[in-house]
Design a protein that fits this description.
The protein is mostly beta strands and about 425 residues long. It has one domain: Beta Barrel (Porin), CATH 2.40.160. The chain is about 5% helix and about 60% strand. It has a 14-stranded antiparallel barrel. A hairpin with a 4-residue loop joins strand 3 and strand 4. The chain starts with a helix and ends in an 8-residue tail after the last strand.
Length: about 425
């Protein structure tokens, strides 16, 4: 079957896609938090907590699955690049690709707003490479490089459903989330003098645990009115993550051998995350959203030890989407969807008593493959950090590409 083939290809994409250079600051905590799981969400500012779609799968708020009309499959990849500067005269460039998620959803009841969705999406991403060149006055040591490399991240597999409360038009949703990850942090010293042995010290964390996501979307506060504004709603969701059991492995590797320094299970505490937003439709074509997110990373701890480099995350974003009213026989250009957005993020990082903030602008579009299928593109440009206080400033971009496919499954045939 055609869609089974698509699922197989999607899973191959999931396995084979490599991680991208994310941020130098991702060496702290669990790395950069991934707020956007699709090219569509990225194009309009990353969020959209109060938005319910019939032809896209949102993962931020499970209450948004109530309008699904078809079985849908979505997946995507992203290409990221970053210019990193330590001052006005020194720059480095890093780039790579990243898997951005695989989701599947199908409607159960349009009357009761029941939609079921499942998938795998990234939660945080660790990916950085930093090299520091040093010189020693001792001729037996000479010049050497210390490289710091991090990779991996935290992901989750989820399954959940939405439901519309009778008579109230209030949509609620919930998911069961399984979190898992593999985070690697390595330090390598390489000597110019061949008589000295290269050595690597690596720490690996493998957390796992079960959590949940709860959400709601309000009724349309403008229902029954006649104006250019319609479908005005508010929404909120909460990600609740309990303490996770984390296997820890520390190894020391040299040219001669590899030694296991220590292995031990520890507890990892990841703070909850709250999302809230509002949206309104203007002239039946322009969707406008405003969202906020909060996650108190100052409570993050590993083995009951908090990090001095973590603070509370706060994100505010605004986005818009232009979608022409669908008409039978419409031209290709009448089916193209355009998007844009901006955001300001107080990230969870605080280094040398200086908070690391990020400002982003977004854009994107969807082009039709057929009536229910689209190719989605999202673009982000951001600036992050500062060169003050001996820190680094990053100017980065991300191109996200997604495929959203819809078909009718489980349709009862008339006898």
């Amino acid at each position: 079957m055609k869609l089974i083939t698509v699922i197989i290809i999607s899973l191959i994409t999931l396995i084979q896609t490599a991680n991208a250079q994310e941020s130098i600051y991702s060496r702290f905590g669990l790395g950069d938090v991934q707020s956007s799981y699709s090219a569509r969400r990225l194009g309009m500012g990353q969020m959209g907590t109060s938005v319910a779609d019939e032809d896209f799968i949102g993962t931020l708020n499970p209450a948004g699955w109530n309008k699904l009309k078809m079985t849908r499959i979505e997946f995507g990849v992203a290409f990221s690049g970053s210019f990193v500067s330590a001052d006005n005269f020194e720059n480095r460039y890093y780039a790579g690709t990243q898997f951005t998620g695989f989701t599947m959803a199908f409607p159960v009841s349009s009357v009761y707003g029941i939609g079921i969705a499942m998938g795998i999406v990234p939660v945080t991403n660790v990916n950085y490479t930093v090299t520091d060149h040093q010189s020693s006055a001792n001729p037996n040591i000479g010049d050497y490089d210390i490289s710091y490399v991090g990779s991996g991240g935290l992901s989750k597999v989820f399954i959940g459903s939405s439901y519309k409360l009778p008579l109230l038009d209030i949509n609620i949703g919930a998911t069961l989330d399984y979190y898992f990850g593999n985070l690697n942090y390595a330090s390598t010293i390489t000597f110019a003098n061949a008589d000295n042995l290269t050595a690597t010290y690596q720490t690996t964390y493998q957390p796992k645990g079960i959590g949940t996501t709860l959400g709601f979307i309000s009724p349309d506060f403008l229902a029954g009115t006649s104006s250019a504004f319609s479908d005005f709603r508010i929404g909120a969701s909460a990600n609740i993550i309990p303490k996770m059991n984390t296997d820890t492995l520390q190894t020391s590797t040299s040219t001669l051998r590899t030694d296991t320094v220590t292995t031990a299970p520890v507890n990892m505490k990841i703070p909850y995350r709250l999302n809230a937003g509002m949206s309104v439709l203007i002239s039946k074509k322009y969707l406008v959203t405003i969202d906020v997110a909060y996650q108190p990373w100052s409570y993050y701890s590993l083995n009951n030890i908090k990090s001095n480099n973590m603070r509370d995350l706060f994100l505010i974003s605004a986005g818009t989407e232009y979608r022409p009213v669908r008409e039978l026989g419409g031209t290709f250009w009448n089916q193209v969807i355009l998007r844009g957005g901006v955001s300001y993020e107080q990230t969870q990082y605080i280094i040398n008593n200086t908070g690391i903030n990020q400002v982003s602008v977004f854009g994107g579009f969807s082009v039709p493959l057929s009536y229910a299928n689209t190719i989605d593109v999202g673009i982000q440009y951001s600036t992050k950090g500062t060169t003050d206080a001996m820190l680094l400033k990053e100017s980065g971009f991300k191109f996200a590409f997604g495929l959203s496919l819809g078909d009718i499954w489980f349709l009862r045939e008339e006898k």
